[in-house]
């Protein structure tokens, strides 16, 4: 089928496992069934009217099991183009169209999405993005450093403030709430933001350094804007958000709301219910990559390949690519021969990748190599568990970053008058 | 660890697969890690303060692989009690607490949830429920019948109206929009609701029967209430909602909003990204059962075990149980010896189970047996594909229901002057 030039299409790629299915027939069934419903039985005159609504099979790549490997399975990667005209320009409509009913149809995983230029044009994307976040912090020449509160539940305001202050003293650029800290009588958001921002100012007088504090945005969906405003009015200069608990559209609306004018940090909470199975769900590069960026996340946390919560390296790199790339090839589907975007670039700011879990200073060279330096190094235990305390933990990371930027091997840099880094290496080693 | 009487707990049950893990240690790690963060190293005085925030291991059932079956795997069902005091009384907070980060921690699936009485008390549950829906329709003595539009995309208003009218003529109780019908210039919601409700009134003059039309509630999250009001003002007397594309909290808030005073029908769109894997995700009884009912769905669609989109029968029955049960044992966690609920019943109205996909009249006896008659029989192709047309398709289902209610074998009832049922049986057979 050739593509009607008059329509724009979003393209979903599925990986389907089946021992004997006719994958080409299955692809046609998807393209028709999830759009116009029926096709071959339509009268010709009706076909002419309906053609612009008809889904198209872009490609079907069948992978037969390898003869030598009894464990290898038969699967196909199927790409289907869905006309924009069929759905409104929001992520729920797109996801329900391309994977609503289909998600329940056997072993099928949504492994990629590409957007039409017109669909994409409805999304402003990250308001700050990497450049905007760097500008707020005044840091342009090095990777950023973030730390996470150690424990928060059951702690009172003075305790949180002290934890915050110690982290800030270590020279971190960002501090985020724990994602399981909700509205509670001990540390209500406006009080903890007020106190922590005071601690940030106090630390800045010591360190000369700005800091973003991402307060956890929680509570009823329809009250999220009010809750965000409450935090921002109290001084929050960033917000953390459990995107998947609320849906991508809530993030998308927050990111374009005039009153929510601070960077939004997306937490991957619940993502493990969706991406790890090879047979079901939504791949990490779509879930934590393309859709987070499309929905306007300025920073995106995801499981690092280094630590306790692991994700295979290639999935990590695919997320990174989705958050950073300016190449239109993976993002924009332009149909047969049509030009991609006017300026040939993805029209969305880049989101900061924040690989998380199990990060210690000895991993910094590896992280910077994997992420080409455009990354937020994010540590919890690697800061708080430092033998000389949390402030020293932050300094150890900053020293590791400085050493890497100067091209000096970590061990040498530590030995050269950087005892915090040395202590971190003694505790956790170096992995290159 | 004994439970502190002063706290109330919600309990999550996980199935974890691991060839050699110490599951008891893992359970303690979850109970501590997802609540207070650390425990053994706390000073005793601090422990006394923190105890009410500490998660508890309720049980760990380890299943060793069976010696005779090399394919059997080692797993454990782990139950953890989380103090209510740690999270706000909304579903995002509960899910982020019990399965936010944990979802990404290896092979682990959330297979059950039980709520504390106090958590549950924050949820009014379904506003109408089974009784309320029956009352609106004036039907108390038989299962309900629903039909779905055949195809809607690219159709204009007169075409939709005609489809609606034919379905209504067949004596169906409910008609739902296709879940992939979004706001569009051809059939905007207020226009199609107005016309379809006129068609409903017209059909009622023929059939003497009331009908609920569930219009698809779509669009921006923060505009859902306004969109619902638009549909209701145009005459919609029910709404369809793609819950998982927006998160459970959106449904929960809609269900308790004073202006959204019509039954809410939950569509399982995207659910297949979450429930089918044995190793990851959220089990169907939680996802499409307990949480939908908690969030206030009056009717819940889910894949039937009969048709093309299949779900194993026991998962179906677990969803049914979660939607219907009045037994507190599965729902309410009361800790050590405390009484469950005051009146000993789940304090939520029951949600109508709507097993969907592949339903034809010959399946009615089986469905009524499986669901004890408290069910909405929902058909698409089984109505529209009837050889005598959609109105006859509806009538065939109603005849099948009547026959079953009268205790007459379907074939005999068809032969006794019910040609529509006979034609359906000739097309699709009987499965008992």
Automatic annotation (TrEMBL), chains A, B:
It comes from the Bacteria. Its EC number is 5.3.2.5. GO terms for biological process: carbon fixation; L-methionine salvage from methylthioadenosine. Residues 129-428 form the Ribulose bisphosphate carboxylase large subunit C-terminal domain. This is 2,3-diketo-5-methylthiopentyl-1-phosphate enolase. GO terms for molecular function: 2,3-diketo-5-methylthiopentyl-1-phosphate enolase activity; magnesium ion binding; ribulose-bisphosphate carboxylase activity. The keyword Metal-binding applies. It holds the Pfam family RuBisCO_large. Keywords: Magnesium, Metal-binding. NCBIfam families: PRK09549.1, salvage_mtnW. The keyword Metal-binding applies.
